[in-house]
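Sequence, C-alpha cells reproduced for reference:
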Amino acid sequence: TCTGAGEAADFNSEEGVLYFELSSFYDDANSLSINDGSSSKRITARVRPDISKIQLTVVGSTDDFNYNSATIDLSVNNKIAIVYNNGDYYFYVNGVKSSVQSRGTFSANDFTNLDFNRGGGNEPFYGKCKAIRVYKEALSDSELTTLTS
C-alpha cells in the first residue's frame, strides 16, 4: 500500500523520473506504475522474474512500447530509475544507463496515480520496496548515476 503519495499536481506527464528500490520474490510479472487511474495511460515498471529484467511498458502515449533492462538479480535490492522526457525513455539500473528509446509522448496531466500495480489494479506488486519516488522533472545523468549507485 502506498499512502501520502501526493496530489495529482505532483505528477508531470511530459517529463520526470519513476525511482524505486526493490527486490521481488514472486514468480509472475508484477508492477509499479504512474497512470491515469486506469491501465489506459501509464508508464509501468514490470518486474519480470521469467527473464530476470525490469520491463518499461508505455501505454496510451502516441507510440506504445515495451523495453527491457539489462539482466539483474531480482531477489536482491536494486536501485532503478525510469526516465521519461518528452518522448525519450531510458533506465538507470544500479548506476548504469541504458540506451535511449525515442518514442511516444503523453499530454499534460495524464498521470494522477502512483500504484503498486500496472494501473487499474491488475498485476499487483509482490516484493520488498525500500523506496519509491516520482520526480516532476528529468534529472541529469550525474544525478541519476548518484541516485541509483
